[in-house]
């Protein structure tokens, strides 16, 4: 593996990501799904609007539709009809005439401004305008939200609740999306109990698998959960084979370090290919990435924080790319360190931290608590990562630090 690795064989995260990006061939199979099941799916085509939204000029206020030019010769109008949302006024308004209009109702022919009700006085059918009105006031012009034939959503967009609203607003009830990613998942370790089991001395509950399953759900993946596999090379080999046959990507946790029961990487090497192992990041150093017969492979470290950080920082963006998503730009946020951040040069740290704004507007970042790789609770007391560059040492109060808000995979 010729690489820009350091003397300890640790690869910079940027290089590792490049290797993954170069490996990935995004999914191409397309299917159609209803809006009800479109959340988090990835668009396989640009969506072009078949209509204008709004489809017709309509009122933004409850009030009266008038001809603006009439205001130059008096402020009193005679009421000639009503325009309700769904029930428009069918006539045309003439000089010094007005139509009672509700929010969302079609602007009557001839009208070019709406006076909000609060700016009028009504006396029977005589309506007096009491405030100045601009030409076009309170009128939502046809096509001002979405113009007919314009691109509303682009291929590669992961659909949000708002996107589903947009699709509905142009009358579309199905989306053309890439098929869901299939991800096989298993934990390794003889120490692992299932949540719900009776606690046992020397054993721990498997927290990584439920956590990763939930994270995969956030990415819209279909998960094949193979459970916990003992630290037995034969069983791990079988699990690899089964996982590979049924998925686009295999994700494991544990067994990637150098211990005597750490078989994951060895087996990857034996039945697949290791593209890299060991990154210059903290936590998450022993992450292994490679390929099996037909799937990608991420061997996440067993420590729960290391599993969460490597999934979030490396596996999640890779899976999004594999799923056909257009990569997102990460906007860097800079904040001032409140207290010292303990750090040694040599790895990029993703420390769990709290970022907030002081009264003077300055963004401040402080540690979220224990940075041990076993302390998962530190995530819940944090809202961001303090991303401390590889070459930096101890960060003193007042120094500037890059901050990355936790995104939807972690929240
Ligand atoms: N001599 C060395 N030892 C270790 C090194 C090293 O470089 N040299 N690296 C350390 C680092 S960094 C990490 S991270 C861990 C990664 O180890 P593994 O991926 O081999 O994971 P395990 O040894 O299986 O487990 C580590 C730790 O995490 C707990 N664990 C494992 N699976 C789960 C799970 N599904 N749910 C909750 N907790 C889990 C496990 O009980 C251990 O406590 O290696 C260091 N060692
Ligand atoms: O990479 Mo390990 O995550 O430092 O504990």
From TrEMBL:
Catalytic activity: adenylyl-molybdopterin + molybdate = Mo-molybdopterin + AMP + H(+)
GO CC, alphabetical: cytosol
PROSITE patterns tied to this protein: MOCF_BIOSYNTHESIS_2
Cofactor entry: Mg(2+)
Enzyme class: transferase
Gene3D superfamilies: MoaB/Mog-like domain (3.40.980.10), MoeA, C-terminal, domain IV (2.40.340.10), Molybdopterin biosynthesis moea protein, domain 2 (3.90.105.10), Molybdopterin biosynthesis moea protein, domain 3 (2.170.190.11)
UniProt entry keywords in alphabetical sequence: Magnesium, Metal-binding, Molybdenum, Molybdenum cofactor biosynthesis, Transferase
Name of the protein in question: Molybdopterin molybdenumtransferase
The organism of origin for this protein: Pseudidiomarina taiwanensis
């Amino acid at each position: 593996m010729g690489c820009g690795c350091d003397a300890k064989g640790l690869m910079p995260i940027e290089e590792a990501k490049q290797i993954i990006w170069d490996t990935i061939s995004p999914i191409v199979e397309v299917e159609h799904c209803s809006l009800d099941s479109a959340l988090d799916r990835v668009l396989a085509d640009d969506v072009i609007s078949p209509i204008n939204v709004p489809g017709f000029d309509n009122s933004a206020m409850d009030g009266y539709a008038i001809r603006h030019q009439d205001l130059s010769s008096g402020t009193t109008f005679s009421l000639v009809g009503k325009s309700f949302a769904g029930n428009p006024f069918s006539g045309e308004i003439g000089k010094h005439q007005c139509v009672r209009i509700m929010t969302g109702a079609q602007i009557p022919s001839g009208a070019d401004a709406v006076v909000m009700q609060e700016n009028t006085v009504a006396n029977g059918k005589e309506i007096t305008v009491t405030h100045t009105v601009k030409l076009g006031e309170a009128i939502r012009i046809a096509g001002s939200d979405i113009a007919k034939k314009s691109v509303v959503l682009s291929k590669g967009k992961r659909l949000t609740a708002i996107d589903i609203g947009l699709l509905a607003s142009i009358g579309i009830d199905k989306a053309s999306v890439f098929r869901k990613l299939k991800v096989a998942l298993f934990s390794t370790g003889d120490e692992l109990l299932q949540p719900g089991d009776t606690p046992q001395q020397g054993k721990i509950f498997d927290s990584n698998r439920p956590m990763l399953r939930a994270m995969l759900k956030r990415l819209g993946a279909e998960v094949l959960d193979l459970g916990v596999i003992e630290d037995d090379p034969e069983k791990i080999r079988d699990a690899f084979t089964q996982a590979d046959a049924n998925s686009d990507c295999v994700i494991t946790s544990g067994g990637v370090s150098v211990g005597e029961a750490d078989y994951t990487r060895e087996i990857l090497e034996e039945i697949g290919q290791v593209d890299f192992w060991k990154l210059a990041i903290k936590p998450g150093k022993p992450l292994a990435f490679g390929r099996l017969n037909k799937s990608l492979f991420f061997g996440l470290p067993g420590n729960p924080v290391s599993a969460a950080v490597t999934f979030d920082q490396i596996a999640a963006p890779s899976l999004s790319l594999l799923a056909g998503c257009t990569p997102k730009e990460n906007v860097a946020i800079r904040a001032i360190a409140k207290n010292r951040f303990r750090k040694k040069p040599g790895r990029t740290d993703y420390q769990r931290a709290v970022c907030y704004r002081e009264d003077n507007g300055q963004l401040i970042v402080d540690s979220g608590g224990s940075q041990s790789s076993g302390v998962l609770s530190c995530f819940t007391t944090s809202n961001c990562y303090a991303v401390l560059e590889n070459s930096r040492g101890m960060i003193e109060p007042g120094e500037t630090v890059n901050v990355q808000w936790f995104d939807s995979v972690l929240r």
